[in-house]
Structure formats: C-alpha cells, structure tokens
Protein: DYW domain-containing protein
Amino acid sequence: MALMAQTLSHQCFHNYQQLYVNTKKPKNLLHSFSLPKPSFSISTKTHYKSSTASAVTPSSQHNPQLTLSQNITQLCEFGDLDEALLLLQQNNEIHTEKYEQAIAVNTLLQSCGKRKDIEMGRKVHSFVSELSQFNNDFVMYTRIITMYSLCGSPVDSRIVFDNLQKKNLFQWNALISGYTKNEHWIDTVLVFCEMLTVSEFKPDNFTMPCVIKACGGLSSVELGQGIHGLVIKMGLDLDLFVGNALIAMYGKCGVTQDAVTVFEKMPDKNMVSFNSLIRGYSENGFLDESFDVFRNMLESEDGLRPDVATMVTVLPVCAEEGKVEMGMLLHGLAVKLGLLHDLMVINALVDMYVKCGYISNARALFDKNVQRNVVSWNVMIGGYSREGNVQETFDLLREMQKEEKMGVNVITILNALPVCIEHSEMCSLKELHGYSFRNEFHCDEMVNNALIAAYAKCGSLSASNSIFDLMETKTVNSWNAVIGGSAQNGDPSDAVELFLQMVDSGIKPDLFTIGSLLLACAHLKSLKYGKAVHGFVVRNGLHLDSFIGVSLLSLYIRCRKASNARIFFDEMDVRTTVSWNAMIAGYSQNALPQSAIDLFREMQQHNVQPSETAIQSILTACAQLAALRLGKEAHCFSIKADLIGDAFVSSSIIDMYAKTGSIEQSRRTFDGLVEKDAVSWTVMVTGYGLHGLGKEAIEIFEVMHRQGLKPDRYTFIGILMACNHAGLVEEGLKYFSEMQSVHKIEPKLEHYACMVDMLGRAGHLDHAACLVEKMPDEPDAGIWGSLLSACRTYGNMDLGEKISKKLLDLEPGKAEHYVLVSNLFAGSGRWDDVRKVRQKMREMGLVNNPGSSWIEVGGKVYNFVASDDAHTESKEIHRMWRELEEKIRGIGYVPDTGSVLHELDEGEKEELLRGHSEKLAICFGLLKMTKGSILRVYKNIRICHDCHNAAKLVSKVMQRQIIVRDNKRFHHFRDGLCSCGDYW
Structure:
C-alpha cells in the first residue's frame, strides 16, 4: 500500500503541474522541485519558536536566494512547522506567486501528515480556507484530505470532502485511501459504493487496490470476489497494483488457491507480487508452499532480489517450521544483499533463531545490533523466558531498563511472565508485578490475565484470585485465566465454583472456558460433573470443535471410562490427528495396550500420519504387553517416519526395550543418541534398575552427573530402585541423603517406598519401620505391603501383625492385602489364623487374582493361569514339564514346597508347584520357539523360590537363555544362574 500511496501522491503533483502550466512563472521553475538540499544547517537558536513572534520581512530571517517553497522545505526538515506557517503568512502579505505558494503549502501539509501533527494541520487548513486563490482548488484540498487521514482522523477528511462544491476522482481516491490507511474497512466500501452511485467518475487502478484491501480487512471473500468481478469488467485485472492487492486480499481471506490463480495470470510481477503470495501461504499454514514461491522468485528470470518485506515474511515461516538451516541461508543472503542494516530484518532473524532453539545465535546477533528498539529487546527476553531461563530473562530485563529511552512496555511484561512457572520464581514474579504496578501496566487486561496465570503456576492461587477480584472489568478472558489457573494448578473444585460464578454474572463461556472446566472435571475424576458439561457442550453445538472434542476424550480417559471415550471418538464427525493420539494414549494409560495397538493400525488404514505422541503411546503399549517384536516394529516405524529425533520418542524406545527384557538393545539405542537429555539418562538408569543391574545403574548415574545434567525426582526413583534390587543398601542410603542435601529434592512417597522396600529386603526391619514413622506424609498401602512381605521373609511376627492391622484398616477392600496377611501366618504355620483371614475374604466377597504368565511367540501373546488346563495344548505342556523336571532333578532340583502357603501334604504341594503359570509358559515356549531363541516370560506377581530355582536349572539343561519379568523386576537365567544373584 505504501507504493500505491506514493503513486497517488505523484499523480496529484502532476496535476499541479498541469493546473498552473499557463501561469506566469520563470521557465526554470519546474526544476526547483529537484534542487539539492542546502549544504548549511540552521541553528535552532535563530529559529522562531511560535507564530506569535514579531512580524519581519522574510529576507531578514531566511535565505533570500531560496524560493519560498525551498525555505519551507528546509524548515519542515528541521521540524520547525510553526516557523514554516509564519513564513507562509508573511509571504502571503507580499503577494507571493500562487504557484510557488501552493507548492509551499503542500510541503507543509505533507510534513503535518508525516509527523501526525493534526493541530498544525488544522492551522494550515484554516490558512488555506482564508485564501481566495485556493477556493475549489482540487489538488490543494486533496492534500488536506490526505493530511487528515495521515494524522489518523478520516472523519476530518470526510468533513473537508463533503464541504467541497466540486469533486474529482483524485479527491474520491484520497478519501477512500484515507479510510483504508486507518483500517476503517466498512467506511472504505461505503464511500466506494457512494462514488459509484452519485458520481460520474469511473474507479481506476488507484481506487481498486484500496477497496480490495478493505475486503481483506473485513475477511469477506464474497465481497472481494464481487469487487474482483468488477475489476475484470473494467479491464483492470492485468494492472500490477490491482493484481497485488487481489493476491493479498485472497490470502487474508484464506482462499489461497484464488490468490495463486491471480498470481499466475498476471502478465507482470514484481517483488510485491511474490511477497504477497508468500505471506498468503504462510498466514494460512501452507509453509512448504511459501518456501516454494520464495525459491521460484529466486530462480525467476526477472532478476528480482529479495527485499526487506521478503525477509520479514519468509523468516517467520522458518521460525514456525523450525527450519534453522533455511533461516541461516536467509541470514547469509541478507548480508550479501545489504539488508542486515534494516532493523526489521535483524529483529526477524533474532526471532527466527530464538524460536528454532538457537538462543546463543540469537543473542550474538542481538548484541551486535547497535540500533535496537523495544521489539529487539522483547524478542530476546521472550526467547529466554520460553526456554525457562529465569536468570537471563531478568538480567536482560534489567539491562533494558538501563538503556536510555528504552522503556519497558506491556509486551515486555507479557514476554517475561511465562518464565515464572515454579514456586522458586515467586520473588521474580513479584518483582514483575511490582514493576507493572508502578508503571500502570496493571490496568492492562492482558497483563492482569498473565499475572493471574503466573501466580497460579507458582502455587499461589490466593494471589491469583486477589488480582482477579481487584479487576474492575472482568471479561471472558479474565474469567478464563482464573478458572484455568485453578483447573491446572491444584484446585479443580474451585474452578467449577468460579465457572458457576461466571455464568451467574452474565458472562457467556467460550471454548477456552469449557476446556478448562473439562480439565477440572478430569482432575477431580468427576464423571458426574463431566457428563453435565458434555451435555452443555452438545446443547450449544460446541462438540464440533476439535479442541473441545479432545478435552471430552481426555475427561473420559482420566475417569477410566475408555469405552465411553471410544463411543464419543467413533461419533466424531472429523477426527484430527490430536483426537487419534488422545484415544490411543487413553488406551495405553488405562492399561489396554492391545486396544491401543489395534487403534494405531486403524489410524494407519485411514492414512492419518501418526505424531510423536501416538508413537510414544504405542511403545508404552508394547512395554505393557512385553511384546518385543511389536516394539521393534514400532521402533522401525519411528525411523521411517523420521520421529526418532524426538527426545521423548527416543526415550520411549529405550524404555520399551528395557521393559521387554532387552536391556542390551536399550543401551545400544541410548548410546546411539546424538543428544542425550536428562530424560534419556533417567530412563537408562531406571532400565538398569529394573533388571537388577545396580552397579551399571550407578555408573551411568555418575556419568550423567559429571556431564552437568541435573537429576530430578524420577532419576532418583530409578537409582534407588536399582540399589534396592541389587541389595546395595549403603549406596541407596547415600543417594537418598544426597538427593536432599546436594540436589535439594524433597523425597516423595515413591522415594520412601523404595527405601522401605530396600531396607526390608535386606533384613533391616527396625530401620525400615523407623523410616516409616519419620515420613512427612502418611505411608500408603504399597509401603505397608512391602514391609509386611519383609516381615514374612524374616519371620518377624510381632511387627508383621502390627503392620497387618494398619494395612487392612487403610484399604479393607483389597483382596491382595488379605493374601499378604494370610501368607504371613502361613509362613509361621499359624493355619488357624490363615483360615480366619480366608474366611473374612469370602464373607467380603473378595477374590484374589490368580497368578498368570504370558509369552510372545510369533508375534502373538499367549496367556497362562496357575493350575489351568484350559489351554488347547495343555497335555503337551504338562508332558514337557515332566520331562524337564526329570532332567533337572538329576542335577539337584528339589521342589521347594515352602513356596506353597496352603495346608496340604507334600505331594499335593508338589503338584501345585507343577502348575505354576511361569512353568507352563516356559514349556510352551520350548515347544513352539526355534532352538537357541531367548524365552521371554512375563508374570503378574513375584516369582516364587521354587520357580526361580527351576528356571535356573532348566536354562542349564536346555542350554537356553530364559528371561522372566515379574511384577518387581527382571530375572535373566543362563547356565544355571540368575542375574539377581538369588536376591529379589
């Protein structure tokens, strides 16, 4: 539009030449418009500061060798508009030639518009109105109309226009252009329609681009298409300016194909044409296409060179796509073309590097920039803030305040606030809040909303609510901020209450409100409230929105209603990639791994490209099923889909291999990572712990620490679990202490659970019980259960009975707790007490899940239950075990009937041992799998001593590696030995 405005200005100037061509003037007067600037400068001390200065002749204060217009130009360049007006008034008294006076007035009007000095513009307008020689002067009043629009007051432009006795096309165009420049889109269209109906003038190639731009501003493609039709009828469709405006309009309206059609039909194209199409593609999400147009521009035979507009259009596309390589090429091109001196290009480059994660590159460019403005600072501060770098964010913010005339604005505050997401940042948040208050930014709604969200994230819902309560005007965005803060940060019931208050206040909820409310219901696991919200969503037609659809899926998944979620998913009119991912993840989270895998396959049949989230869920499902073959297929799929570079996907692959028994492949994947973050190290530590490889877990934990990566609470769960399973008590106590003293991480319930289990397994029952007593939180059933199992192992009946009472009081409806108590009594031969416990279970209707094992053979998972003869090949399986038992008895196997906690004779106990599910699964694997292949068996409860001894000996007589994962850890059996060293 700037190019069009310059052309319109040139046309008006040309009209002046035609208007005064027959007046008396020196023959060389036309050359005065291109005279060079004077070489001298005027001292501000000699300038008149106001029009009230005493009148003097022009020759006494201004260069007599210059014309009036040249003197006015000089004054305007120095900003002395009052002096310029005074000079005009003085020269009017000595009857300066009309042509010269007109040029001088035009110069002053242009300067008023450029400086947006409307008060001076009104004085000049008044001066012109008093001069009879300018009555009905088309060009002069066109300039006045333009001046008012440049000063941001198209209303004044309209008043001037309406008072004209006669109007020409230039004045209509000036009025239409003024409305367009001030984004009064409807007024632009109305004046255009008025021009068509009440005047005889035909719109030209200056009128139509303004009107077309208004259609884009209104996002009205129908109106734009109508104007386009009119353009074709008038024969203006091949005009370069009109074509460029049409491309921009269709891009604004989201109809990129029509923009392409216009572009392709244009006989001539310039940089604006290409820039408009690139912007249209990028603003509508067609990022690859915008790059294609950029490449075509570079390869075109027209010799077009990218300009500032090109750079600031293409660089944000690089930022959006994370294509830093392309951004770097553009950086080099900007240097080559001499565009790096433009501040907008530098800011766009800094922004690109920031959003692509190259913060050091951005900072280097920022530091070299000597012409930084507030945008430059805001971009850099926002980059550090999004990275979570609190120190650099606030250091840069303080440095910005030291810069002269570099005031922090609302955007600065909004960019800095996202870094405040933890309670540790509360002081920094209060600092920002105080600064906002002192500079009256707290009156800005967006700042208040951001402060509400920040305080909620930092754990101060009371401060968040206080800011909200003090707001005089509460919009839907304000309510969303406080409801979202409560929903996401620990007080979902308060979020529901706030929603009810919002509705009572007459504010209509929007999609973000409903999304937060559904999140609150999900956190509360309140299916009742959730269904009520679902009803509201359906009644108001909001269920068609993809964001709300996914929120509803998440609600049912969090409430463990995967079947309800699937029904809703199947009824969705449009299933986005996010909805597929949510459903697949939901199945995985609800321990329905096979359903997750089946839906993933269905997703592929629908040609929906899986994202990182879907692959993570599938890898988790494979780990839950212990399906190594499927896991390998998912790994290959990740490589083919180019998702392996994602940190979470690679960590999920490491985790999958660890949990499916292939710790060697897990380590190979880990070693192959180009970049290892704290998550990948943590997963590897945990994987070693799961396999009982305590020394390896410690070794990799220490390497992680030496490389400067900070372990988190999950890392310490992994290392404590590793110490537990390997019996490394001293090491475990050391890391538990360092977690608090060195790394300042407060132990959670899961850390105490690891420590209690570790101490209990090692026989330090008193130490374990003492630790339980000192816990800041109430111990859960898992901790009491671990301690109770240790009491049975070491025969500590006194402590065991106390713990039994606590466990049953805590969760009286769990069958597994009664089984633990029963086993405690059975281990000491107290069969009367065993019968009482069993009788209590029967009276309460509690049934314990039987031991079960499963094995993957040929990509299919086969399940076995203890003492179950329902399998189709049950006879062959039992025959195989009898043969194996005979072989292993020959090398020392004796059935450990102490593992049978039932009051039976020895023969009956031995028969029960033969039916244990892991033995059945091992036999099936030996029958069905090729010789030499590894048997991988998975079990839902801890492996008993008898099966453990038997598996060791079977591995020796059959010369096969057997891997068994129970509900605690992995056991690798080979050559008659187990990786656990008989400690589990």
